[in-house]
Design brief:
The radius of gyration is 14 Å and the shape is globular. It has a single domain, classed as Glutamine Phosphoribosylpyrophosphate, subunit 1, domain 1, CATH 3.60.20.30. The chain contains 3 helices and 8 strands, in the order ββββαααββββ. Helix 2 crosses helix 3. The mean pLDDT is 96. By secondary structure, the chain is α+β, with helices and mostly antiparallel strands. Bound molecules: aspartic acid. This is Isoaspartyl peptidase/L-asparaginase. It comes from Adhaeribacter terreus. It holds the Pfam family Asparaginase_2.
């Protein structure tokens, strides 16, 4: 299995967590380390702001430091989670190309799914609410 699996969570005490697992990219060099295990690049969580797990072109995500950037935009620019995610995925887009996709969750329990690909398998569950599961953009 080479696909990426990411998760973000908020517990009842207000603790945020993020995890990302990936098999990497097709045709990658032996020994390549992608963005997924790099805290701040492909994964990041901070109880002050949000939790982020990325998928996409790892080199691009690493160079743009996407996960930490979402946190920084919330913390230092007071952006809401959605706007921070959109901006972090756009930053340096003219210089650093590649897909940046992510899931994010903030301390208020807001969830953002952001992806540039045609689809992203995703789902969420909040307390006793009905589970959300989707694949395509419009869902
Ligand atoms: N971001 C992962 C990597 O570059 C790949 C993926 O998310 O599909 O290793």
């Amino acid at each position: 299995m080479k696909d990426t699996v990411g998760a973000v969570a908020l517990d009842k005490h207000g603790n945020l967590a993020a995890a990302t697992s990936t098999g990497g990219l097709a045709g990658q060099h032996v020994g390549r380390v992608g963005d997924s295990p790099l805290v701040g690049a492909g994964v990041y969580a901070n109880n002050e702001t949000c939790a982020i797990s990325c998928t996409g072109d790892g080199e691009c995500i690493m160079r743009a430091n996407v996960a930490f950037n979402v946190h920084a935009l919330v913390k230092y620019k007071s952006l809401n989670l959605h706007d921070a995610v959109v901006q972090a995925c756009q930053d340096y887009k003219d210089k650093i190309t590649g897909d940046r996709n992510l899931i994010a969750l903030n301390k208020e329990g807001n969830i953002v799914f952001q992806f540039e690909t045609n689809l992203m398998f995703r789902g969420s569950r909040k307390n006793d609410e009905v589970t959300y599961v989707a694949i395509w953009k419009e869902e």
